[in-house]
Amino acid sequence: LAEGYLNRPALTAGRFVADPYGAGGDRMYRTGDLVRWRHDGELVFLGRTDHQVKLRGQRVELGEVESALRTAADVGSACAVVRRDGHGEQVLAAYVSPAPGARPDPAALRRLHADPLPAAAVPATVTVVPELPLGPNGKLDRAALPEPTITPSGGRPPGSPVERGLARLVEEVLGVTGVGLDDDFFALGGHSMLVVPFVRRIRQEFGVEVPIHEVFRSPTVAALLRRLTAAAGQGAGQGGFGPVLRLRPGGSGAPLFFVHPAAGLSWCYTRVLRHIGADRPVYGLQARTADLPGSVGEMADDYLARIRRLQPEGPYHLLGWSFGGNVAHAVAVRLRAAGERVALLVLFDSYPNQADRDRPVPDERELRSTALWNLLGRPPAPADEADVPGAVRRECPPLSGADGEQVEAVLRVGMNNVALLASSTPEVYDGDLTVVVAGRSGPSGALPVDAWRVFATGRVDVVTIDSGHHEMFTTAAPATGAALSAILRDAESAPTPGGWS
User: Fold this and answer.
1) What is the DSSP secondary structure assignment for residue 347, as one 8-state letter?
2) Mean local confidence (pLDDT), 346-375
3) Where is this region: Disordered (predicted)?
4) Could you read off the pLDDT of 110-120 as tens digits, one per residue?
5) Distances (CA, A) of 407 to 270, 392, 395, 396, 410
6) How much is the pLDDT for 500?
7) What is the enclosing helix (H) or strand (E) of 301?
8) In sequence order, which residues have a C-beta less than 8 Å from that of residue 235 and are 6 or more positions away?
9) Is 88 helix (H, G, I), strand (E, B) or coil?
10) 289-347 tens-digit pLDDT
11) In terms of CB atoms within 10 Å, which of 43, 77, 189, 278 comes out highest?
C-alpha cells in the first residue's frame, strides 16, 4: 500500500483509513467502490460512493480536479463531469463560477493545473458559468450543466502559410473553425487521445517530427509554431526570410533544393512536404533583399555556393517553380560543368526566355505590376496599386506582418527577377530534366517544353497536371505533390548513368 497522496494530507486522510480487520496500525485504501458481499463470498459491484471515474484507462478523482480548480483566486466554485466530445470520446469537462468581481480565463485555468494534475485529470474544457446549478435539495445538479463551451479566442489570426497550415490541422482534428495563433489545443476540446493523430498530421503536412509531450508543453498554435521552427532549424532571428529556408533539415536521404519563384520566397513549397519521404532533407533557397544580382548566372553562382555548404558532393536534386526553374537549370549547368552529378532537375511550369524572345524588355511600371501579380497570385486591381503594402499583407501570408519598407524590398526583388529573366538566355545543361506543366494555364505546353530541348542534352520529360500556373503550390498543391512524389520514385529506381560520379 502506498504512503498516501504527495502533499495532500486531507485527501490522504480520507482515502487511507484504519483497517478494522487487521492488526493495530494496519491501514486500508478506501476505493469508493460500492459492492454487495454475497453469502458465497462473491462481490457484486453496485457503483461508486464518490465521483471517481475511469477515463481512457485511468481513474480520475473528480473531487481532486474540483479542489485544484478552486485554488485559483478568480474561481468561486467548480465542478467536473465526464462528457462525450464530437468524436464520441469521453472527455473531462470542468465548470467554474467566478469569484466576486473576477473573470476566470479558461485557458489560464487549464495551464495552471496542467502541472499538479495527472494528464488524464486536466480538463479538456473549462466553461465559465454565472453559478453552478443546484437541485431542490441544494446539491449540485450535474444534469443541468450546459454543454461545454468550445470556441476559439478570436485573437491574432494566422498569417504565414505555416501558421495557417497549423491552424487548419487543429481545426481538422478538433472539428472547430476560426482557430487563431493564441488558441489552446486543449481549451478547444483536445485531449490526450487526440494528440497522437494531431502529431501524425503535423508530420504528414510539414515533414517534422514533434514529440507528443511538446503539444502539452506548447499547446497554442503560436507556441507550437516556435517548436516547428526550431525542429526545422529555420532560425528565429531570420523569421523564415533568410537565404536558406530549412523546410526539413533532418534525414538520411539525398536533400532536395527548391529555388524560389519570382517573388523570392520559398514558403510555397511547404504545401508539398507531405508528398516527400520523411527521410529527405528539404531546403528552400531564397533571394537576398540587398545587393541584388545583375544576372541569372550571378544568382546561380550564389545559390550554388549555398547548396555546397549544405551538401559538398553530389548527386544533387534541384527543383524550381516558375522563375525558380530557370535558376535551378542554371545551377545544374554549373554543377555539371564542375563534374558533379545532378540526379534530378524538375522545373514546375518554367520555360526558357527564348519562348518570349520577341517581347520587348518590360518597363518599370510593367515590372512592378508583374512583381505584384507574383506576390498576390492574381492580376493586381487598381485598389491594390493604390495600397500595395496593404494588399500584400492581406494576400501574401509570409508578409502579413511586414511594414511598408519590407514590402517594397520584396517588390524590388520581384522586379529585379522579372527583369533578369527577360534579359537572360539559358546555357545548355548536360543532362535530363522534367517539366511539370500547369495544364490549365495555356498554351498547350508543346512549344515551351520543346524550347527546353535546345537547352538540355538529355531527355526532357513532361508531366501535365490539372492546375493553373499560380495555383500549383496553393489550391492545386495536392496534385503538384502527387506528381512530385511519382517523379521522385521514378528517379530513385532509375539506374545511375555510366560515367557519372
Assistant:
1) E
2) 74
3) 141-160
4) 766 666 566 66
5) 21, 7, 12, 10, 5
6) 45
7) helix 296-310
8) 229, 242, 246
9) coil
10) 888 999 999 999 999 999 999 999 989 999 999 999 999 999 999 999 999 999 999 99
11) 189
The pTM of the full predicted model, rounded to 2 decimals, is 0.57
**Has residue 462 been placed in a domain?**
yes
Residue 348 shares a structural domain with residue 442: yes
CA distances from 145 to 68, 77, 81, 118, 338 (A): 20, 14, 9, 24, 73
| pLDDT tens string 287-304 | 988 889 999 999 999 999
The rounded distance, in Å, linking the Cα atoms of 125 and 102 is 19
Residue 34 pairs in a beta bridge with 47
Query: Domain range spanning residue 277?
Result: 233-359+423-493
Secondary structure class of 342 (helix, strand, coil): strand
Q: Distance between CA atoms of 164 and 180, rounded to whole angstroms?
A: 9
Q: What local confidence, expressed as pLDDT, does residue 258 receive?
A: 98
Range name among 171-180, 195-204, 283-292, 355-364 with the lowest pLDDT average: 355-364
- The whole-angstrom separation of Cα 361 and Cα 364 is 10
- Under 8 Å between Cβ of 343 and 254: yes
Strand pairing partners for 437?
464
Q: How many domains does the chain have?
A: 4
Q: Is 387 left (phi over 0), alpha (psi -120 to 50) or beta?
A: beta
Residue with cell 497522437: 196
Helical pair 221-232 and 192-206, crossing angle rounded to 10 deg? 50
Same domain? 272 vs 305: yes
Q: Residue by residue, what is the 3-state secondary structure of 213-262?
A: HHHHHCCEHHHHHHHHHHHHCCCCCCCCCCCEEEEECCCCCCCEEEECCC
258 plus 325 within the same structural domain: yes
Q: Identify the pLDDT of residue 140.
A: 84
Amino acid identity at 483: A
Collapsing DSSP states into helix, strand and coil, what is residue 464? strand
Q: Is residue 283 part of a domain?
A: yes
